[in-house]
Every structure is written in structure tokens, then in C-alpha cells.
Amino acid sequence: MSGQGKTVCDSGKKVMNIKQVADYLGVHTSTIYKYAQRGTIPAFKIGSDWRFSAKHIDLWIDEKMNGAGKK
């Protein structure tokens, strides 16, 4: 990458909530909530709260940027 800033993993967070993922991706929290419900973005639930592994979010981004997962 060409100096596009820190990755989630660089910030020291291993697990993020919806707001943190939305901030990281630059989208609204409702978008992340919908993606999590649909299984579009890698996520898991703790009780009723969605959580996201920083490592898996970064891998998901890499897949999207490399065109993997196109149907």
C-alpha cells in the first residue's frame, strides 16, 4: 500500500463494534448493521451485539480490492 494510513490492526484493536467498523470503512453504522445481518461482512454476535475481528475485516477488504468474491 502507498501510505494510506493505519490499518485496523495497527491501531491495536483486535475486535471492533459496529461504530468502529463504520468509522474505519467511512460508512454509516446502519450500512454495517445491514451487512452483518446479511453475512456480507465477516461478523459475529456476542449476546445481541455485533462484533468484528480486525484481521477478518482487513482480509475482507483485501478480497474486495483484488476482485475476489465476484459472482
Short summary:
The protein is of the alpha+beta class and 71 residues long. It has a single domain, classed as Orthogonal Bundle (Arc Repressor Mutant, subunit A), CATH 1.10.10. It contains 3 helices and 3 strands.
Could you outline the blueprint of secondary structure elements for this entry?
Layout: E1 15-16, H1 18-25, H2 29-38, E2 44-46, E3 49-53, H3 54-65
Antiparallel strand pairs: 1-3, 2-3
Descriptive keywords:
71 residues; alpha+beta; Arc Repressor Mutant, subunit A; 3 strands; 42% helix; disordered N terminus
Describe the structure.
The protein has 71 residues and is of the alpha+beta class. The protein has a single domain (12-65), classed as Arc Repressor Mutant, subunit A. The protein has three helices and three strands, in the order βααββα. It has helices at residues 18-25, 29-38, 54-65; strands spanning 15-16, 44-46, 49-53. A three-stranded antiparallel β-sheet has the order 1-3-2. The protein is globular, with a radius of gyration of 12 Å.
Unreliable spans are 1-5
| Number of H- or I-type helical stretches | 3
**Terminal Cα separation, in Å?**
26 Å
Give the overall shape.
globular
Structural class: alpha+beta
- Read across the widest sheet, the strand sequence of neighbours is 1-3-2
The total domain count is: 1
What's the SSE pattern? Answer: EHHEEH
Number of strands: 3
Backbone CA Rg: 12 Å
Please give the CATH architecture: Orthogonal Bundle
Strand % is 5-15%
Helical content (DSSP H or I, runs of 4+): 40-55%
Instruction: Name the CATH class.
Output: Mainly Alpha
Major sheet: size, sense and barrel closure? 3 strands, antiparallel
| CATH topology call | Arc Repressor Mutant, subunit A
Q: Report mean pLDDT, rounded to a whole number.
A: 86
